[in-house]
Amino acid sequence: MAHELLNGLSPAEVDQVLALGTPMTVPSGASLFRLGDPADCLYLTVRGRIRLTLPMLVRGKEEDILVDERLPGQMLGWSALVPPYRFTLSATAPLETEVIALPREALCAFCEASPAVGSKIGLNLAIVVGNRLQLMQAMWLREMQHIVELKSSQAGAARSDQPGRLL
Predict the structure, then answer these.
(1) Which one, of 66, 65, 20, 75, lies nearest residue 45 by Cα?
(2) Inter-axis angle of helices 115-160 and 11-19, nearest 10
(3) CB burial string 48-77: b at 16+ within 10 A, e below
């Protein structure tokens, strides 16, 4: 299976990187990590899917708001390679899911020993982070548009409630 983190690597290089990892099964409904947890590993999704969520207070109750889903071939947990090494979202398996956990220390040591591989992994990581940034920006813009429309409609209603005032 091709993994987005390993794009551009030779089959031998892919095997070497995968050998650094540990296969894990995440049971249905189980949490892989929570927002703010130390990020010591990044994960490659092999089978199933992982929901990435942001815990938010909604009407006084904490809810996990879906940000993204990671499918086979995709990675998650890139916070393991970016200081301060804390997860920025929560990750949960909605169904039994298999991942490969790549420890930061082992992956970084391998990349230092193989700079060409490290460069390709770094570029692939930047693509994943850039995609997440675009996703978060689109979500933020949609919410800001909603707020602007809401304020605009409230201001219009306030103006129409004032007698003798032209709209």
Answers:
(1) 75
(2) 80
(3) bebbbbbeeeeeeeeebeebbebebebbbb
Pick from 63, 60, 69, 77: which is nearest to 135 by CA? 69
List residues bridging with 92 in a β-sheet. 31, 51
pLDDT tens digits along 87-98: 999 999 999 999
State pLDDT tens for residues 64-104: 999 999 999 999 999 999 999 999 999 999 999 999 999 99
Complete domains list, the chain, with CATH: 4-160 (2.60.120.10)
Q: Residue 60 has which token pair?
A: 């006084």
Token pair for residue 24? Answer: 């894990």
Instruction: Write down the pTM of the prediction.
Output: 0.81
- Smallest CA-to-CA distance from 33 within 57, 56, 50 is with 50
